[in-house]
Amino acid sequence: MTTSTATQTRIKESNIGIATLFAFAMIPMSGFATDVYIPSLPGMTSALGISDSQAQLTLSIFLISYGVSQLFIGGLLDSYGRYKISLVALLIFCLSCVTIANTHSIYVIYAMRVLHGITMAAMVVSKRAFFVDLYAGEKLKHYLSFFTIIWSTGPIIAPFIGGYLEVNFGWESNFYFLGGYAAVLFLMELLFSGETIKQKTAFHPEKILSIYTSMIRTGSFTLGIMMLGLAYSMVMVYNMSGPFIIEHHFGLSPVITGYCSLFLGFAWMVGGFLGKGLINKPFVAKMSANVALQLTSAGALLLFFWLFGQLWTVLLFAFLVHVGAGFTYNNYFTFCLQRFPQNAGIAGGLTGGLSYVIVSVLSYALIYALPASSGINLSLSYGLLILMSAGVMYRVFVLSGKEKTDAI
Q: How far apart are CA 82 and CA 74, in angstroms?
């Protein structure tokens, strides 16, 4: 059963171009929400009188809230539309950023980071569905293949900005920046965007649950989500440990942390471009070569850091690992989002949600087991994640067969 959206504020045909531009501008927001205050993590521990693990937990809380929320938000977006939910989410996100910047209670920050995850899920999943609603065929595939590349601008730019904000204005300024970004997008959405869903699906929990179950039982889709989680966990492990390695182990400033994160964010973008350029190449061959490169790089990081103990050893080999992670993410993300176009909101939510749940659990578990002390622990974390990726890829090959896998 479906209902019409005639009573909704439909997007104007003349505004689709500029609305698409601002939809792309919203995609990197989840990266900004994690990465802009990465250089401030050591500073937050001092200013708030908390431990390193408590500061790192603000990242994990956001990730798990963001991931779990995406599991449910897709059904709401398919039933009630994208536009109004996205607007309300932007406003709440903005207000919660201001709240964080004006408190020194870590527990209030934890609560606001839960809100950040919920509202970010609504914003990002609605914009993924926006593209599926308005575009089709090769144009849709073209836009979706840009998602990873555009998203990567967050990890590239955000820590660079955050390092300077931390040095000049303190950790609170990062959250004022995030709130300002959300406020600008809220205004642009209000002026130029509108509802894009053509037909709403009646909100029947049993039916929605059956759709979720059908998607999860689709082996290639579920394995694709696992690969997304493993790929981004490599980035998040660095995000949670890198600032402490750079600022505590090497005694360098948050600005240097920002430059290093910018460098490694660029690696993710390079991997995304490579993934887009090689998207039609045989899947097994290119992904096997990618895993081999990553595993070699993680091993080289372990050896060279043990021999020289210098920052360049971390950056050089982590760069290669992150290129491989971006390559993996691009290949699987496009496939997962195109897999169920008739339920774009649910598919987008499930893809992002499960992958971020995997990221939050894996990254925090690895940081807990291998604390952020040196490049040696970082290389061991990379190695474990890469070996797990190889195992999942082998499962893809066994279940799908080479011909089906090459079609991905």
A: 9
> In this structure, which amino acid lies at residue 112?
M
Q: What percent of the chain has pLDDT over 90?
A: 37
Write down the CATH number for the domain with range 15-194+203-407.
1.20.1250.20
- The two tokens of residue 350 are 């499930």
Look at residue 110 in the predicted model and tell me its pLDDT.
96
Q: Using 50, 70 and 90 to split pLDDT, how confident is the model at 234? A: very high
Q: How far apart are CA 291 and CA 299, in angstroms?
A: 12
- Give the integer Cα–Cα distance in Å for 357 and 69: 10
Q: Is the pLDDT of residue 385 over 90?
A: yes
Query: From the centroid of its chain, how far is CA 221?
Result: 18
The label of the residue with tokens 């990379």 reads 382
CB 163 within 8 A of CB 255: yes
Per the CB < 8 A criterion, the answer to whether 88 and 364 are in contact is: no
According to the model, what pLDDT value does residue 402 have?
A: 47
- Calculate the alpha carbon distances from 263 to 153, 315, 349 in Å: 11, 8, 29
Following DSSP, what letter does each residue of 142-207 receive, concatenated?
HHHHTHHHHHTHHHHHHHHHHHHHHHHH-THHHHHHHHHHHHHHHHHHHHH--B--SEEEP--HHH
DSSP string, 204-240: -HHHHHHHHHHHHT-HHHHHHHHHHHHHHHHHHHHHH
Going 405 to 289 to 260 to 303, the CA torsion angle's sign is positive
Round to whole Å and give the CA distance between 65 and 56.
Answer: 15
**How confident is the model over 259-269, as pLDDT tens digits?**
898 888 889 88
CB 308, CB 375: distance < 8 Å: no
Among the listed residues 233, 123, 231, 128, the one whose alpha carbon sits nearest the alpha carbon of residue 178: 123
Per the DSSP assignment, residues forming a β-bridge with 199 are 4
pLDDT in tens, 6-52: 445 788 887 888 888 888 888 888 889 988 998 999 989 999 999 88
Q: Which helix (H) or strand (E) holds 57?
A: helix 52-80
Q: What's the pLDDT at 401?
A: 57
> What whole-number distance in Å separates Cα of residue 74 and Cα of residue 69?
9
The number of residues in the chain equals 408
C-beta of residue 128 within 8 angstroms of C-beta of residue 344: yes
Flag whether the pTM goes above 0.85: no
In whole angstroms, give the CA distance from residue 206 to residue 1: 13
Distance, CA of 344 to CA of 197 (rounded, Å): 10
